[in-house]
Each structure stands twice: as structure tokens, then as C-alpha cells.
Amino acid sequence: MSGGMATDLRGFVYPLASIQQRYQWQLDILQGQLGAIQNQMQAQQERLAEMRRQMALQTECIAKAVLQRLNPLAHQRSIAYLMQCSQQIKEQEKHLAALEEERQRLRRECIDQQQRLELTEQHRLDCLKEYTELEQIRQSNEADRDWIARSVWKERLHAQPPVKTPQLESKV
Asked: Rounded to an integer, what is the distance from CA 145 to the centroid of its chain?
């Protein structure tokens, strides 16, 4: 029914626009939180890699020291130090696992929020389509009424006998 008729959309008001905007804001916040968690995870993973590298380096140094001179007290302290490093690494791994769980939760929330936003956008498009169809019908009906009114006016104009205007005789 388009028929080349442009539909004026200025009258269209989406009733759920504020909800749709709130969904977008919530999605933006969640995506920001997700980005922050990912940055935090990357920093913590780098820290964990550094801790592991340091522990491997210390283990190598301790092994060389034990081979060079056997000192039971120093060896006992070295073992305690390595146990402490191992415990710190385990704590860091737990921290990273907790961050990973939080990241997964935020990802799911982002997906859910994105789906809500897409549903409201589809609803808005459906409402817009319905408004456009109704507006085109209204415009078509208005054009029909105008055409009928002009037709009746033209019929009446042609049905009236022509009015004779007195002509002045010219004296030549």
C-alpha cells in the first residue's frame, strides 16, 4: 500500500522507549564491568606467571646451592620459602578462579541484557510498522476524500450553465 506515499513518522511515539533506554544503559554498565574484570584478570594472570617464574628461578638457585654446600638449616629455610611461594601461587590461582567465575556471570548477564534489548527493539520495529501501516491507510483515506470532494466540485462546476457576461459593442 506504499504507492510512493511517504509516511510522516513524527507522530510515532514508542511507549517502551524509557525501558529500552534503561536496558541499553544496563548493558553498557555490564559491558564496562566485564571489561574491567577482563583487565583485572589479565593483570592477575601476568602476576601469577611472574610468581611462577620467580619460584622456578628460586628453586633452581636453591638446588645449585644445596649441591655446592650442604647446610641443613639453609636448606630448611629454602624449603619453607618455596612452600610459602607455592601457597601464594595457590591463593593467586584461587583469586583468578573467582575472577573467572565473575567474568562468566557478567558474560551471561550481558547476553541476557542484550537479548532483552533486542526484544524491545524488535517490538519497537513492530510498533513502527503498525503505525506506518495505519498512517498510510489514514493518508490514503484522506487522499480519497480529497479526490471525491474535488470530483464533486468539478461536476457541479461543469453542470452549471455558463454565465454570459454582457459584451460591449464596439463602434468601429
From this structure: 45
